[in-house]
Amino acid sequence: MAATHDAPSGGIERRFPIERGQRRVVVLDSSTHAPFHAKEADARPGDEIIVNASYAGVYCAVLVNEAKPLGAIGVDCAIGKDGAGIQGLWYFEALGIPAAAADIMSVELGNGDTLWNDGVISRVNGVATQLGIEPGMTVKRAAELMLDKPAELPAPDYIARKVHFETPEGRQIVSMNSIIDALPEDTDRNVLCTAGHTGRSVIDYICDHRPYGFICSDGGFGRNESGTAALEPTAAAGIPGASVSVQTARMGDGLSTYQDGVISAANKLALELGVKIGMPAKEAARILVER
Predict the structure, then answer these.
(1) DSSP bridge partners of 215
(2) What is the pLDDT of residues 207-231, one digit of tens each?
(3) 105 exposure class (CB count in 10 Å sphere: 0-12, 13-18, 19+)
(4) CB atoms within 10 A of CB 84
(5) How far apart are CA 279 and CA 30, in angstroms?
(6) Which residues of 147-157 are buried (b: 16+ CB within 10 A; e: fewer)?
(7) In angstroms, rounded to a whole number, what is the distance separating the alpha carbons of residues 1 and 63?
(8) CA-to-CA distance for 275 and 231, rounded, in angstroms?
(9) What is the reported pLDDT for 4?
(10) d(C-alpha 19, C-alpha 26), whole Å
(11) The pTM is what?
(12) Mean pLDDT throughout 226-246?
């Protein structure tokens, strides 16, 4: 989408707080200024991090993309209905561009200087994650990491297996994105924090892999509470397990299940061991692995 509007009567203000060789950071007050920046003779398509104090939605991403950014940072605008305040992050992810959004409470909308000087990252896309950018980081640091983006990034790790804790007996708490990626070494040994639903289609996977315990997502429960239908059949197979609320942890992201998840349902074996509804997944996983 090429801009067909005239630039604002007062012009646009551009700031360049960091420059590294051909690459640099461009700070703008609005995503609507990006197309006009792109037309400037000194614009550097493919070599600029566009930091703009607009919401990080799809429309704004389309505007920023006219400048062919190396990376982009906007504002989350409290995420909003249907996540519209940050949907542009996934637009950029599909293009292989790292993007992030700053917490609206750390900045002033329309004021690029506050975004640059005071902004704190709240959300990132998968490409940004590969660069080490994470929530809680300053906008300045995130932009610096984007400036260092290599020409090619390794393929994303969709399994994302990570060990978080190990007992003296050698049992581990392990996060991964799906129960189907469990390993033989997990059988009767490890507690797995995964990020798919706990519906009936995973019963066989859980029973076949036989983890020492498991925590999945409730998938929003759904009709007839189908999102947690695997809990009691797995209890019958002797495997304690629980689900986290889809409102607390990202589906498809096992790390989020472990770090952010809050228990919303559990089977009778897990409940008997002390797992409680409303408990953080981290705490529940420790109960399961240390039993």
Answers:
(1) 193, 242
(2) 999 999 999 999 999 999 999 999 9
(3) exposed
(4) 15
(5) 41
(6) bebeeeeeeee
(7) 7
(8) 13
(9) 62
(10) 9
(11) 0.80
(12) 98
